[in-house]
Design goal:
This protein is about 25% helix and about 30% strand. The strands form 2 sheets. Strands 2, 6, 7, 8, 9, 10, 14, 15 and 16 form a 9-stranded mixed β-sheet that branches. Strands 1, 3, 4, 5, 11, 12 and 13 form a 7-stranded mixed β-sheet that branches. A hairpin with a 4-residue loop joins strand 15 and strand 16.
Amino acid sequence: MIHISFGLDEHVRSVLAVGGLCLLLLSGCDAATPSGEADRGQAVPGLSAPREADRGLATRSMTAFRSVSAADPELVDEKPDQAARLAEPLWTFGLDLLSRQAAKTRGNIVVSPVSLHAVLSMMLDGAGAGTAAEMRRVLGVETLSAEDRRAAWAGLIRRANHTDRAEVRVALSLWTRSGLAPRPEFATAQASAFAADSYPLAEDPTEAAAAINGWIAERTGDRITDLLSTVSPDTMLLLVNTVYAKVGWWHFRADQTESAPFTLADGSTVEVAMMHGRTWGEVTVTEAYDAMPLDTDGRLTLWLVVPKGDASPESLIPVLAWEGRAALSRDPQSADVEVFLPRFHIEHRADGLMDDLGQMGMPAAFIPGQADFGGVSASEPLFISEVLQKAMIEVNERGIEAAAATSVSAEAGGPPERKLSFRADRPFLAVLSQDNCNAPLFVMLVRDPR
């Protein structure tokens, strides 16, 4: 099971997204002989050996697992461009996922490419032969060696967790049933590349769920406290991920927000709380859409993509997936931009993610007897039993006063000559990206911001 959840409270400073992800693996039969992606007994080049965990945090399931803080200098990738090598695969993966979810519901959607991609990448380290080949294609990392992919993830996590003037945290962990003996090289790779902690999985279903929920709550500021209600006794391994992002901005003031019409996909209009502000920025204007980035106090950017004419957000997703982030900043026009953006609060539980991933090209990972995760453990053949995701994100005016001084000092000295209006008053796409590695933390489709 992969379960992503994002939580908020009323004290959010403009943008807050919190995620918890959990992947369950069951024991299968007749798994193939381990081969392929998993590097048997090899260290990860370019990454130092993991440190001992802080004592007293929790009992470890085996000594091969170590806890390494994502903020640890030992996790610094030696090649500065490594983290950026994941940007294109993450954009393509996330938008493909968004498109498939959009076809299943008429509501608003938010998913986290980083969260799902990270956990699947962890499993890729233990995949062999055909299973690994399928996963590499779906994750878009066919051109990266295993060591380069690990170094890229180590760099991305480190950079995300060192975001200036914003709270961004990416954390991962493995929970292992006592009957499963993970391979030491798999455990070492997870600790080194993903800063993954390891814990024993309690035999009691309720106790196991409580322990994992406690780990998630601690890393999401208690925004997520009940991700799991129980853990099946058949579950042998859980991979858990949390993503937390909180940042302020200066573009909008609450007293400038007014009720305004928003045109829905069927042509009808509804009244929404429309934020209004001005900013000096760059707008990409095309025949099919307008796009612009809204800077924040930290190194996070909220990209907005508003369709034009007969285009819809759904029709734009394949274009953005094909061209990536470059499609949002092609021939931008610098201007004094009057921005109209509705407040929005999205909650979305992803539907049929195993079907989506299978159709994207990795069905073997979910089939007992076909899945090959022999690089994870020699004691039990494993397959991924379930994939679930829930997400929540909120965007509003808050944080503006704390950022006002920064906004003034960052502006250009003279008034710009060009003036543009950017109005998100119809269904639109949005991406919250990490500036220092261009990773899309969250992608969303806003159909009705009420």
